[in-house]
């Protein structure tokens, strides 16, 4: 893929007449690459990735064949079945908080863009179900207990081991009335509610089960308020510590429950708690920790459909979010690399790229249907502009960048070879049936060789803010994939496949 010129500003335009920043932006965002990208191929791969992250007993239709069953006794130490679910990234822990967020975003991808997924829709729905089957097990005992993590992160991170060989501590962590966790419980309620929409017509009994459970879990989250990062500090921090607080997950859970159940009480909850739970805070954050931009975009759909004048504050916040991410507007929280990649502080930059781009695209669709544009500093950001911004980020990931490489494993001619991922970097069980112990894996970690197992579809943390990428396992910020990078990307790729 040829390197793109970032500024193709046409000099034939009179600068005085066309001084509007937004018009400038429209002109300076490159058009689709000459050959275009194979978004359908990228979509298929982005979903396949989730099969590589599966924990538990793998089903007969598992397509990523170099993985095997793993962690078949998870939960046993606590007398519960907690097998299944997803490993979050390149390690072998099951962290409930990002797993729930991943499931919520995969569901949102299917809800808004499932119609664009063609033959991949079934695979996307299976990826959602692999998450919800686990979340149903983890929430079975609510309100007495909600299981939020399996595996001791220190013990796991001390080893470089295949999940199939894992002999590290599989400690089970839970929250309950006396050790609350409204953050992880609120996100879990959001995931179950969002997924209930995915299954509404596909599998009505399963959908009802998900919604009933979401209602119970939300009630538990709201009634016993507190942060799991306080209740379980030494286990979950600094890994998936909720730095931002639990208030956003309560609003987020209520927003999804409202969408899924159409019950008045959730609408009233949102209106009543908008200020208390600080919907207008940090409006340009969206990730496993902070849901604010997502809450505002999701609820704005109702406002744009003219059904919710009591919720207009959310639309104002969503508009503020949009204006803050436009390139060229100086914003201390959002920057762009010289090659055009969105940048935010914190590890794994690509999570911000995909989640914020997803919101740009989702909001753009909601605006289009209502024939609206976003007022930003005396001008308007149109739905078309938002789509082009989102597409520019997706195209960067797929190869339109200064290194001309794709950041998705297995897509394009050049992609990351040494991702920070235990299963991918160690020989497969088929290639090396004998156990590889904790420290025996170190030589694979330190090896300069490419990973032997292709984790197809994995999107890594990505380049640094100068567009440089080391392609080296120890640089985990750059080279580690995560499930919550891919979950929103699934929706983006589906849309651009249908609308290249
Ligand atoms: C990015 O990585 C390159 C190559 O390692 C390095 O020269 C550059 O300083 C890094 N940029 C930043 C902003 O860290």
From TrEMBL:
Residues 39-493 form the Glycoside hydrolase family domain. Its EC number is 3.2.1.4. The active site is at residues 420, 471, 480. InterPro entries: 6-hairpin_glycosidase_sf, 6hp_glycosidase-like_sf, Glyco_hydro_9, Glyco_hydro_9_Asp/Glu_AS, Glyco_hydro_9_His_AS. GO terms for biological process: cellulose catabolic process. It catalyses: Endohydrolysis of (1->4)-beta-D-glucosidic linkages in cellulose, lichenin and cereal beta-D-glucans. Residues 1-34 form the signal peptide. It is an enzyme of class 3 (hydrolase). One of its GO terms (molecular function) is cellulase activity. PROSITE patterns: GH9_2, GH9_3. It comes from the Eukaryota. Belongs to the glycosyl hydrolase 9 (cellulase E) family. This is Endoglucanase. The lineage of its organism: Eukaryota, Viridiplantae, Streptophyta, Embryophyta, Tracheophyta.
């Amino acid at each position: 893929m040829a390197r793109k010129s970032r500024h193709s500003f046409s000099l034939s335009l009179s600068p005085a007449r066309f001084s509007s920043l937004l018009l400038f932006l429209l002109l300076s965002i490159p058009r689709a690459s000459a050959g275009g990208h194979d978004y359908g191929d990228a979509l298929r791969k982005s979903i396949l990735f989730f099969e590589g992250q599966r924990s538990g007993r793998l089903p007969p239709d598992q397509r990523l064949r170099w993985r095997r069953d793993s962690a078949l006794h998870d939960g046993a130490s606590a007398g519960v079945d907690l097998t299944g679910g997803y490993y979050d990234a390149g390690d072998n822990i099951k962290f409930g908080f990002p797993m729930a967020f991943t499931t919520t975003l995969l569901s949102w991808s299917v809800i808004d863009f499932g119609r664009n997924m063609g033959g991949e829709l079934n695979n996307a729905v299976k990826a959602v179900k692999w998450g919800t089957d686990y979340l149903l097990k983890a929430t079975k005992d609510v309100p007495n207990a909600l299981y939020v993590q399996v595996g001791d992160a220190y013990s796991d991170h001390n080893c470089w081991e295949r999940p199939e060989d894992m002999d590290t501590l599989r400690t089970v962590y839970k929250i309950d009335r006396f050790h609350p966790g409204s953050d992880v419980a609120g996100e879990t309620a959001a995931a179950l509610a969002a997924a209930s929409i995915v299954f509404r017509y596909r599998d009505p009994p399963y959908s009802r089960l998900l919604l009933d459970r979401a209602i119970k879990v939300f009630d538990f989250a709201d009634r016993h308020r507190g942060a799991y990062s306080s209740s379980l500090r030494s286990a979950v921090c600094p890994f998936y510590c909720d730095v931002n607080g639990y208030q956003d997950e309560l609003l987020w859970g209520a927003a999804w429950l409202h969408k899924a159940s159409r019950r008045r009480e959730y609408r009233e909850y949102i209106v009543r708690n908008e200020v208390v739970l600080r919907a207008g805070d940090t409006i340009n954050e969206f990730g496993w920790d902070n849901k604010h931009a997502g809450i505002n975009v999701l609820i704005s759909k109702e406002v744009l459909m003219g059904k919710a004048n009591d919720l207009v504050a959310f639309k104002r916040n969503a508009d503020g979010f949009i204006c803050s991410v436009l390139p060229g507007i100086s914003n201390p929280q959002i920057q762009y690399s010289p090659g055009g990649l969105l940048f935010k502080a914190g590890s794994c930059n690509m999570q911000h790229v995909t989640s914020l781009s997803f919101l740009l695209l989702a909001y753009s669709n909601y605006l289009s249907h209502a024939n609206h544009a976003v007022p930003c500093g005396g001008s308007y950001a149109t739905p078309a502009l938002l789509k082009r911004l989102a597409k520019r980020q997706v195209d960067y990931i797929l190869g339109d960048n200064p290194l001309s490489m794709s950041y998705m494993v297995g897509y394009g001619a050049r992609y990351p070879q040494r991702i920070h991922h235990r299963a991918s970097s160690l020989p497969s069980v088929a290639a090396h049936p004998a156990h590889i112990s904790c420290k025996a894996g170190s030589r694979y970690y330190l090896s300069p060789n490419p990973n032997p197992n292709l984790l197809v579809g994995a999107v890594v943390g990505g380049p640094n803010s100068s567009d440089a990428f080391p392609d080296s396992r120890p640089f985990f910020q750059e080279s580690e994939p995560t499930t919550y990078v891919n979950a929103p990307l699934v929706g983006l790729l589906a849309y651009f496949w249908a609308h290249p």
